[in-house]
Predict the structure of GMC family oxidoreductase N-terminal domain-containing protein.
Amino acid sequence: MSETHFDYVIIGAGTAGCLLANRLSADPSVRVLLIEAGRRDDYHWIHIPVGYLYCIGNPRTDWLYQTEPDAGLNGRKLRYPRGKTLGGCSSINGMIYMRGQARDYDQWARLTGDAGWTWDRCLPYFKKHEDHHKGGDALHGAGGEWRVEKQRLRWDVLDAFAQAAVQAGIPATDDFNRGSNEGVGYFEVNQKAGWRWNTAKAFLRPTCYGRPNFEMWTGSQVTRLQVERDADGTKRCTGAQVWTGKEMVTVTAAREVLLSAGAIGSPQILQLSGIGPAPLLREHGIDVVHELPGVGENLQDHLQIRAVWKVQGVTTLNTLANSLWGKAKIGLEYALKRSGPMSMAPSQLGAFTRSSPDQPFPNLEYHVQPLSLDAFGEPLHSFPAFTASVCNLNPTSRGSVRIRSARFGDAPLIAPNYLSTAEDRKVAADSLRVTRRIAAQPALAKYQPEEWKPGPQFQTDEELTRLAGDIATTIFHPVGTTKMGTDEDPMAVLDARLRVRGIAGLRVVDAGAMPTITSGNTNSPTLMMAERAAEWILADARGAQAQARPVPVAALP
């Protein structure tokens, strides 16, 4: 830490930050600093796929956030995991490779006034860093840093669920990432030969570690951004204050500061820096450096409703992992083959469908697992069972992230505000009915499925919505808290090129920039956004302003 002057300062070595560090430090003429509050990713459970069980809820790798009591969840609080290590959430997440639907990005184009965000314009940036197991084609990339593989296991009960879904009218698919993810099939995952493939492996090592113009600080938390006024009165972010655990250090950025601390961390840092809603800042005695009322608002997340079915005559992880012989078999298979339950993502089988026939697009996502438990981190049940978790892909409920105090060490107040709209409550009730319809198909009959949770006695919309509040939990996809938008949108924090409105030299590059949540898992869309941001940053540095300006939106379908 002897050097504190850089060209680019990247805050957060998570999904976006690792890619940005790779792309920007490729120019040997610039100096790049990557700052991470967590430690290096040298904890063995990060790399063994099933290790998410030991990373979530562990202060070694998780910020240990909790939500505020939520009325939509009948007053419950939820654990709200966020990665605190190199690779960020890509080191503790479900490893599922999912882009969402083409309509998501076309909607972003409309909301930002920039046709550059359409699906057709975004697709090349997914492909640029992709290394797909089938090789490259019109929709997938090969040779990139971000490895995508098939899962190295299968389960009879999941195969039967997939057949039942087809019988219920959901088509089979072998690729969820072609623009319309409707269908049922096994998820593809970010793994390499049975190991988790996080963004630190993909983008930092060995590439960045060998570059003399790249520096990385771990165990270092940014406490606030430095904002100054240029001679012409323009506000400019010139650097950040960093707590190293021993001292406060000020770092400066000659070109840009890139905030990639995630949909929870980035709005917290902005608010602590005096950038955000003026009433909130004044409440905590923080001088208003720049008023942006949208900072921390517009929080969106996927709420999964975890329905459980008891089964008979088939092996599930409940029975396999609840015996010493079963555990030994699982460990031996992974040691010898890098396959089996220790190689599995938290969810293996996926399905996308509609909550009702009048829905124009698939608006539900299923994460199906050959196991059951009361809550994440709790012991598996003693009886054989599977869980069909279903979430509303396009929730209309909106929450917030707000600082609790002016102290950087205090976790922010996270209020997702789940199921706060009539639309979301209706989709929740309808989604449980879709799950029941799938479970009633002939393909599952041989296993005698019995609904254990929420229970077949609950039938009305009111009953199912209340039960959804009792059993639902986050699927870890917070986005939208520093959304991009047009000049006419008073709640837009960023422009269409992820630049903070009213402050030069500062961008937010993470899932918080999404104006609306994608129709699927959010990790790989965040990587795509970082890929695009890197290109814009480099274009701006070259003075290629024409490339950095938004493309006007034409008539979009």
Remarks:
- The first helix runs from residue 15 to 24.
